[in-house]
Amino acid sequence: MKVFITRTIPEIGIQLLQDAGLTVIQWKEKRNLTPQELIDNCKHCDALMKVGAIKIDSGFLEASRHLKVISLLSVGFDGVDLASATRLKIPVGNTPGVLNEATATAAFLLMIATSRKAFYMHKKIIRGEWGFFEPTADLGIELEGKTLGIWGLGRIGFEMAKKCVGAFNMKVIYTNRSKNEMAEKELHATQVSFDELLRLSDVLSVHTALTPETTGKMNKEAFNKMKPTSIFINAARGGIHNEKDLIEALQNKTIWGAGLDVTNPEPMEKDNALLNMPNACVLPHIGSATQQARDGMARIAAENIIAALRGERLKHVVNPEVYG
Prior knowledge:
By secondary structure, the protein is an alpha/beta fold. It has helices at 11-19, 35-42, 58-63, 82-87, 100-115, 118-126, 155-168, 181-186, 194-200, 220-224, 243-251, 291-309, and strands spanning 2-5, 23-26, 47-50, 69-72, 92-93, 147-151, 171-175, 190-191, 203-206, 231-234, 257-260, 280-282.
């Protein structure tokens, strides 16, 4: 049996697949496959490991209905037409849990960097502008005792909240589809409505999934409800915020700052206004970019494939209806 992988992945994943007797084919060119190239490469394969921003749409799935599994090297599955995959009885697996710490740390980093205008100040050194000392220039804001709002208090959001409580004694509020009893017990978190989250948060950190309901939800209307002293953090999916509205909110001082590990669109153009704003910090979607996290993701993605090709249920399946 053959597995096609759309990127070069950590060796641990390759070794697991080969030890299971599978032939591994990796796309090693540093460009995205075209839709037709993806179809052509999967024609004689039994499994696909999707890595990177490649759309798995109904057209691909119809042409590749022979696949026994699609394994994602990610937690998010917004790039997959799950309804079509389920209809065609193709299980889709993801890699939850293993990247919680890394992604939460990236969000925490962005919060601190934004609060002190760190990226902008570093660029001033590069431009040779570290000169005359002005006591009132380029001031940041402190985080001690502030209110952290989490939109999407799942595993990653919980790790972010835990760091903020431990480091800065922050009060935690959250908006979720369901109550997070562990967060309420351990972190004294309080569940609030989305409007209350916007209105009360000093730092609003987004960790929700990208869905039709969340797409573009952080727009002009939402930013207008936030405090002028607040910081917006997005380490989830760029499609959750409207980037034009975010830029305007920062320029008009509707909010104080923004830290982004994800952008809309991705990759971001080098002349994007956010990259030169004093109160914005942007990273190129590196939330899971640690050796430990990526090794763990490769391991789980490989295990999902091995299970499917053995006729077993995937340990982490995002469309469990296929087994119904």
